[in-house]
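Here is the promised in-class demo. Please do not try to memorize the tokens; focus on the logic of going from shape to residues.
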């Protein structure tokens, strides 16, 4: 019976492909020509989510390999040991990008695939994998955008000295970054130091939702009132140290650029009251300001200084000089928006980073939802948030050069093949969000690229395989790839 169902699904899919190839999609007036000359369109992924070969090929374990093995952490106790096996299928994936007209691929380099213990001995098989991925991408006309860190700290460094909690991590990261610059920088001209450091600090050390799962009440230990701020401080200094190495030793020869990837959901005041407007601003300061303020201004936002006080580390004058200006461009990962409301009461005794915001979240206004919800519990579809995010960064941080480095929505993980490829809601999502992005560009925002998240359905962190963000459907049993209608929608946009 299962084989019959699969055969029927494949037949339906083949008919869908035929329609996709013969018909065009509503692009909403979007086309490659409607964007500035040289604007880059790409897709994005991360090593841990797509590569597989987690326990093979000489790769050392990361904190996520340990975290996913704890029963109950991931739905169905799933792991990323194999995930979608891009390690062996990278050519197929690059070919799909080329077929759909994309310009670039934003991938991450697994630190523990290069240095199994975080430092010291180099895993040559891992080095060769990224050489092969980069070379084949360039051969197919796909520009590599390499990110050095996407959540996957080598487990050995966490076990040796608690990783991001220890200032020793700064030099370790700089050394790893330099190895990558030296090894791949002759071909990679676009670098990012790390992806969503706010999530690393907040989800890993405030509520323990992500690896390494530390928090005040977590079995693994931790202190939610201090550790997120210590980790963030070391992440910022590690980013700046890597950028300094690149600029001092490699940029003049390799002629590349380097930046950082920051997540930023939009926070809209629930009402026009002073309390709600102040709450929304605090949320922005505690979210993107936590990292972008030091990079642009050399200090943390005043709102954070006022609330966190002595729990918030300070930059020395020398550190501030290295951190300030440490990006050639800024990657913004944007998905969703929320309403913010002020709290009439909040605890005077600090509980943790999220509590320090002193805000309340709201998901509707007068009974009207802020937007329809995607599969993920946190993801509401709010296109106008894209315009507000880009405008906010332009107005508050000196209009830096920006890349929208992630944007997308998910379907349920158990959706069928036939249903999965017919992703009309995702097409509507991309069209409406990119229209809002174009509006911001037309109003003067210096945005030079857009990367859809993600190329493939894959291992979605704490959601495991219950969430599909890809524009390409992956059958998790066969690992076969099937471009969804959203992939063909991008093809129609990019061919014009």
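The designed amino acids, position by position:
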């Amino acid at each position: 019976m299962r084989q019959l169902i699969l055969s029927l699904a494949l037949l339906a899919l083949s008919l869908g492909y035929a329609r996709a190839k013969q018909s065009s999609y509503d692009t909403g007036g979007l086309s490659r020509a409607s964007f500035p000359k040289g604007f880059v369109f790409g897709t994005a992924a991360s090593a841990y989510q797509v590569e597989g070969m987690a326990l093979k090929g000489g790769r050392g374990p990361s904190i996520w390999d340990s975290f996913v093995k704890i029963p109950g952490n991931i739905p169905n106790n799933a792991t990323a040991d194999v995930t979608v096996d891009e390690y062996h299928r990278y050519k197929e994936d690059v070919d799909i990008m080329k077929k759909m007209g994309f310009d670039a691929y934003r991938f991450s380099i697994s630190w523990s695939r290069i240095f199994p213990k975080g430092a010291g001995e180099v895993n040559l098989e891992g080095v060769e994998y990224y050489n092969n991925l980069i070379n084949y991408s360039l051969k197919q006309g796909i520009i590599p955008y390499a990110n050095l860190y996407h959540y996957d700290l080598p487990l050995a460094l966490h076990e040796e000295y608690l990783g991001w909690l220890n200032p020793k991590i700064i030099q370790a990261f700089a050394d790893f970054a330099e190895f990558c610059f030296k090894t791949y920088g002759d071909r990679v001209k676009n670098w990012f130091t790390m992806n969503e450091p706010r999530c690393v600090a907040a989800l890993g050390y405030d509520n323990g939702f992500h690896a390494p799962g530390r928090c005040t009440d977590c079995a693994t230990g931790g202190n939610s009132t201090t550790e997120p701020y210590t980790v963030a401080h070391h992440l910022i200094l590690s980013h700046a140290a890597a950028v300094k190495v690149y600029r001092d030793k490699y940029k003049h020869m390799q002629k590349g650029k380097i930046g950082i990837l920051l997540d930023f959901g939009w926070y809209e005041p629930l009402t026009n009251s002073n309390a709600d407007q102040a709450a929304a601003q605090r949320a922005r300061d505690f979210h993107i300001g936590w990292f972008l303020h030091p990079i642009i201004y050399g200090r943390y936002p005043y709102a954070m200084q006022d609330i966190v006080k002595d729990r918030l580390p300070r930059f020395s004058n020398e550190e501030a000089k290295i951190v300030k200006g440490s990006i050639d461009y800024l990657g913004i990962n944007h998905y969703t928006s929320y309403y913010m409301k002020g709290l009439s009461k909040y605890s005077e005794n600090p509980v943790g980073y999220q509590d320090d915001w002193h805000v309340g979240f709201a998901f509707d206004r007068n009974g009207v939802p802020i937007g329809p919800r995607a599969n993920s519990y946190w993801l509401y579809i709010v296109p106008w948030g894209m315009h507000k995010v880009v405008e906010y960064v332009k107005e508050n941080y000196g209009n830096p050069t920006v890349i929208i480095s992630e944007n997308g929505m998910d379907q349920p993980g158990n959706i069928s093949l036939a249903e999965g490829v017919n992703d009309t809601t995702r097409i509507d999502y991309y069209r409406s969000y990119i229209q809002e992005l174009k509006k911001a560009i037309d109003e003067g925002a210096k945005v030079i690229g857009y990367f859809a998240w993600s190329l493939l359905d894959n291992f979605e962190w704490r959601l495991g395989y219950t969430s599909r963000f890809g524009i390409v459907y992956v059958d998790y049993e066969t690992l076969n790839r099937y471009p969804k209608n959203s992939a063909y929608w991008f093809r129609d946009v990019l061919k014009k």
